[in-house]
Structures are given as structure tokens and as C-alpha cells.
């Protein structure tokens, strides 16, 4: 049976990281749906390129059974996440992350994905890697200084530049 992946992108998203996931999935025949962490399916990359997603984060709630993996594509919106954490799309994002984690789905991401995984309580005791500037915020997960890390169902890369080292393991896990 073909694996299904839910890819979630913030607005603005780091286009370099997002495209690495999407190209790898496309080139390897892995089905994915791209969701915007927004109220509309249009997002931009951090360089201003407009993208139309398949859907919005709110519609992913309660649908974990339709997907084998969750991918969080980080972006420039994350440094100001705390300023907008109470807004509905961000609340939906946290809810979806918690749902996928509770269902023991593959949890994949780079940059601050590990921070969001920890903040929702699903990465307690798990080894993760994330952007060096986000590492001090980790309390219950175990921070790895490696460029990427795989621990059980968690697959994280420190940045979009180290993501290519993790991509082959992601593809292997999804095939």
C-alpha cells in the first residue's frame, strides 16, 4: 500500500526546505498533500514566491488515519510564532502535531520542527536535532548536535542545509 504524507507549511515557508521534501516525494512516488498553516491555501516562500497549497491546516484535524507521516516545513514565520500562537491556524497546527504524535506517525521536520514537537509533548525523551538557536528552548526532549537525527518515529534535521542528509532515510521509511 502506498504511503501518504501530510506536509505542513507555515507562511512564509522556507522554500528551500519545502522543495527538498516535495521533490524527494515526487521523484520517489510518495503521495503527499500540502497544507498551509493559514486560513487560505495560498502561502509565500521567504523569498516571495507564491505557492498554492492543496488545503489548509484546519482540514487536517481528525484525519491522522489517512496519513502515514507528518512533515513540518519550517519557515521565516517561526521566529514570531509566539506573537501569533493564539491565532486559529497556529492552534490548529499544534493540535494536528499532537494528534499525529499520539498516533505514533512518522514525525519529520527540520529547523524548529523539533521545538514544536516538544512543545506539544510528543517528543519527551526523544532525541531530536534542530536549529542551534532553538536548542536552548528544549526542556524534555534530548538535543543532538548532529546534522540530523532519527529516534523511533522522529526524523529531524538541524536546518534546510542539513536536510539532504536526512532525505534518504525519510524516503526509505516511506517506501
Describe what you observe in this structure.
A hairpin with a 2-residue loop joins strand 10 and strand 11 (154-157). The chain is 29% helix and 24% strand. Helix 1 (15-27) runs parallel beside helix 5. The chain has a single domain (4-174), classed as Rossmann fold (3-Layer(aba) Sandwich), CATH 3.40.50. It has 175 residues and is of the alpha/beta class. The chain is globular.
- Cα end-to-end separation: 9 Å
Q: Give the number of DSSP strands.
A: 11
CATH topology, anyone? Rossmann fold
CATH superfamily: Class I glutamine amidotransferase (GATase) domain
The low-confidence parts are none
Average predicted local confidence, pLDDT: 94
Largest sheet: 7 strands, mixed
In the sheet with the most strands, the strands line up as: 5-2-1-6-7-11-10
Element-level helix/strand string: EHEEEEEHHEHEEEEH
Overall tally of structural domains: 1
CATH-derived architecture: 3-Layer(aba) Sandwich
Architecture blueprint of SSEs:
Blueprint: E1 4-9, H1 15-27, E2 31-36, E3 42-44, E4 50-52, E5 55-56, E6 69-73, H2 81-84, H3 88-102, E7 106-110, H4 113-119, E8 127-128, E9 142-143, E10 148-151, E11 154-157, H5 163-174
Parallel strand pairs: 1-2, 1-6, 2-5, 6-7, 7-11, 8-9
Antiparallel strand pairs: 3-4, 10-11
Helix pairs in contact: 1-5
Amino acid at each position: 500500500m502506498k504511503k501518504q504524507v501530510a506536509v505542513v507549511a507555515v507562511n512564509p515557508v522556507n522554500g528551500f526546505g519545502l522543495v527538498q521534501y516535495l521533490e524527494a516525494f515526487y521523484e520517489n512516488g510518495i503521495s503527499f498533500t500540502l497544507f498551509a498553516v493559514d486560513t487560505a491555501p495560498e502561502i509565500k516562500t521567504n523569498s516571495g514566491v507564491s505557492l498554492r497549497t492543496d488545503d489548509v491546516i484546519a482540514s487536517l484535524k481528525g484525519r491522522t488515519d489517512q496519513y502515514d507521516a507528518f512533515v513540518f516545513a519550517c519557515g521565516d514565520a517561526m521566529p514570531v510564532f509566539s506573537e501569533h500562537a493564539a491565532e486559529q491556524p497556529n492552534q490548529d497546527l499544534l493540535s494536528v502535531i499532537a494528534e499525529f504524535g499520539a498516533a505514533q506517525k512518522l514525525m519529520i521536520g527540520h529547523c524548529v520542527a523539533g521545538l514544536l514537537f516538544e512543545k506539544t509533548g510528543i517528543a519527551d525523551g526523544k532525541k531530536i536535532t534542530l536549529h542551534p538557536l532553538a536548542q536552548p528552548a528544549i526542556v524534555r526532549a534530548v538535543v543532538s548536535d548532529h546534522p540530523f537525527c532519527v529516534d523511533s518515529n522522529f526524523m529531524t534535521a538541524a536546518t534546510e542545509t542539513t536536510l539532504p542528509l536526512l532525505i534518504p532515510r525519510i524516503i526509505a521509511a516511506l517506501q
